[in-house]
Every structure is written in structure tokens, then in C-alpha cells.
Give the backbone structure.
Amino acid sequence: MKFLIVEDDKTIALGLEYSLQQEGYITSLCSDVITAKRSLLEQKFDLGIFDLTLPDGSGYELCKLAREKWDMPIIILTACDDEVNVVMGLEMGADDYITKPFRVKELSARIKSVLRRYHKDNSTKHIIQLGNVRINTLDAKVYRSGQEVNLTALEYRLLLTFANNEGQVLTRNQLLEGIWDVAGDFVNDNTLTVYIKRIREKLEEDPQNPTIIKTVRGLGYKVGE
């Protein structure tokens, strides 16, 4: 798991980084708001640890951005157990807080607790339902009427491209862009037709009259209404 640590006190920051890496976490360290924002926009993190008081702004800004961009769990660090600051941090999207100075073991326990709650609360977000087809994005498995269906990596990626754009008409070019990076061989327009046919054969009740992946003549394909 990868954590973003934002702390301008070098001693605290390096201590945090070392301790978390010892526990097997991957860490990225920032000391100000502008650098942290750049990291949040460019990378996905599993958890954020943000100091509230930073040289060029506050951790509140980072809480808001992290929630909007990734909906990731957040723990805020505060120098004083001030109720107003804590409440504001929680309202901006933080899941928990810890007051400085703190023991690393205490922070570690808070991290594990927040991650457990977060994954429990968000477990259903990893399920996509398309009629009688269910996609579990956590383990990359697809089920039809409760029975697991085996899809190739490229078929799965293509289905996920449809599912993530439910209700939208996708052109063939858009679909090709969505799967190009998992294809071992070059995927052209004709090959795309073959893969859509294969997915329909595996998932549709009647592949000749599809109700999940629908053809929109002259435009492309779409899933959903």
C-alpha cells in the first residue's frame, strides 16, 4: 500500500517515513501544499497523512482534493487537540486525527483501524451490476446469474470500459483506446468486433439479440439506458 505523508517538520516526517516503511508500506513524502497537490493529481494513494499547518497553506485543502480526486482515507496531524481544528478537518473529509506528539505505535493502530473501516464501508463500490452480470473489480471476476464467467484480460478490460461508461455511447476508437495497453498483440478495428462477439457469447442470454452490450448503429456501442 502506498501512503502520502505531508509534514513540514523534517524530524517528524523522516521518523514517520522510516516507521511506515518498516511496516511494509510504500511512502511518498511532501513538505508543503503545492508539492502534495501535484502528487495527488499525478498518483493514486491508499491513504493520506496530512499535517494541518503547512508553510504555504493548510491540510484542509489537501483533504478536500484527496476526497474529490480519489476518495481515499485520510488521517490528519494536529499540533494541539483543538476541537475546532479537528472538527473542521473531519468535515473536510478526514477519517481520523492524531495529536502531536504521538507514539508511532498509536499512529500505526489508527492507520489499520481507518483502513479496515474504509474498505468495509466501500466494499460495495467495487461491485458493478449490469442486468444479470456482476463485476467484482476487487478480484477482477465476472459472474453471470451467480456463475463465474472466465474472461481473458483483454475481454475483461473491454467489459470494464463499457461498465465505467454506462449509459454513454462509445465509439470504436474510444474502445480501442481503452484496451490497447493490455493487448499482447495489435488490436485493430476488425479484432475489436471479434472480442465484442466473444463477450456477448459469454454474457448475453441471446448473443444475436444483445441486451447488455447494445449496438448503436452508425455510432458505436453502449451499456445501459
